Each structure stands twice: as C-alpha cells, then as structure tokens.
C-alpha cells in the first residue's frame, strides 16, 4: 500500500471509530475500492491504535484516576470500580474474539455482509430514541451491565456493526447515565484494541504493509479521531445518537445492492 491510501484509511478510521457508523465496515469498503482483495488486518489494527491514542488523550484524567485508585486497591471509589468493570467487561469480548476469530476474519472480505450489518447498526442506534429521558439514572456500571456491554463489544467484531453504537446503546438500555455510557464504552475499547494488536502483530504482516504506511495511517486516525470523539460525546450527552441511523441505512442498502 502507498502512503496516500493509508492516510485516507486513517481519516476514515478516525471518523468512523467513534461515530456510530462502523469503522470496520467503512475500512472493508475502502480496501475493496483500492483493489485490496485480502485486507491487511495488521493495517486495520494499526489504524485502531491511532484511535486508541485519541481515547487515551481524551480520557486521560479518567485513566490517571483509575490507575491511582487501583494502585491503592480502593475499588469502592468511582474510578476504582470503573477500572474493575472495564476488566470484567473485557472478558466476554475476549472470549468471543478467541472462539470466533477465524470465521469473523473471513467476513472482512464480504461486502454484502457489511451492507446488511450497517443496516443493523442503523436499527441499533435508531432504537436509542425509544429510551425514555428519565431512564438514564445509574451512575455506576455494575457486574451485569459490564458483562452486557462487553458482550455487545464482542459481537461488534462483525464488520458493519458499530462498536461505539452497540456498546453505548447497550449501556443506555441498561439505564446508565448518558455520559457514563459513553465513557465506559470508550474506556472498554482500550483493552480490546490492545488485544487485537497483540493477536495480529507479526513480522510477515509488517513486511507486507510497510512501516511508513503504518505510521502515516496511525497519525491520521489519531488526529481525526480526537475530533470525532469530541463530537460524539457531545451528541451522546444530548441524546442525539439516533441521528446516525439514516446514514447507516442508506449506505448499508447501497453497499448490499451494489455488491449483488
């Protein structure tokens, strides 16, 4: 791949990783348009690393406080318990990834699947309009909510399903405060991205993609990602997540019909 292609993919990754429109679905689409019949999963992971940097930068105060309270073994405080639930929520994500890694990887080359799953993402984010405004009252995550949101994140491995959309909406339906649902969703993404990188990283894949394209892809996804994250968190707080549903439906149907 050349640098222009990876920068383009990085920009798309930075936008779509946080906006609930499925980064993996858009990356599969663009990689097919670029003529990459077998998308490089290492490149996909490196672009996610750029958005991981954006998450860590945006939530740096939360992360510092979580580390501080964990080191003090004080899991009863808000950030200490949040760290615990991030760990618990990562378990179903990891189990789903390990058990279904091979069949899910094969889906990354199927545009019809991407189209259908984008339509499903539209249904997911659109359903957030059905949640009453006074329903978002929980200010702590808890065991069952952590497992539910972690499962939603695991299922979002399917290309076309938005990770942020699935996890935030799941948290909202579980009654979490809007801001907490967004924070927990993105803090939960940190171990998932690190795990994906650990699985995909190998020297052969690195040689196929090249170091320079990986670095440029990382930089572009990080810069655009921090901007998109600011935008989405503002929309989550205002209850405007469903605004992305029509886009997902239109793009999903277009991709599905065009690939038949």
Category by helix and strand content: mainly alpha
What is the count of helical runs? 13
Strand segment tally: 0
- Average pLDDT: 85
How far apart are the termini? 27 Å
Helix % is: over 70%
**Tally of domains:** 1
Into which percentage range does the β-strand content fall?
Answer: under 5%
Largest beta-sheet details = none
Alpha-carbon Rg, integer: 18 Å
The outline comes out as globular
Query: Helix and strand string, N-terminal first?
Result: HHHHHHHHHHHHH
Secondary-structure map:
Layout: H1 3-18, H2 23-33, H3 41-58, H4 60-71, H5 78-99, H6 101-106, H7 111-126, H8 143-155, H9 163-173, H10 178-200, H11 203-209, H12 211-238, H13 245-258
Helix pairs in contact: 1-2, 1-3, 1-12, 2-7, 3-10, 3-12, 4-5, 5-8, 5-10, 7-13, 8-9, 9-10, 10-12
Characterization of this structure:
By secondary structure, the chain is mainly α. It has one domain (3-258). Helix content is 76%, strand content 0%. The protein has helices at residues 3-18, 23-33, 41-58, 60-71, 78-99, 101-106, 111-126, 143-155, 163-173, 178-200, 203-209, 211-238, 245-258. The two termini are 27 Å apart.
Structure summarized in a few sentences:
With 260 residues, the protein is mostly helical.
Please tag this protein with its features:
260 residues, mainly alpha, 76% helix, 0% strand, globular
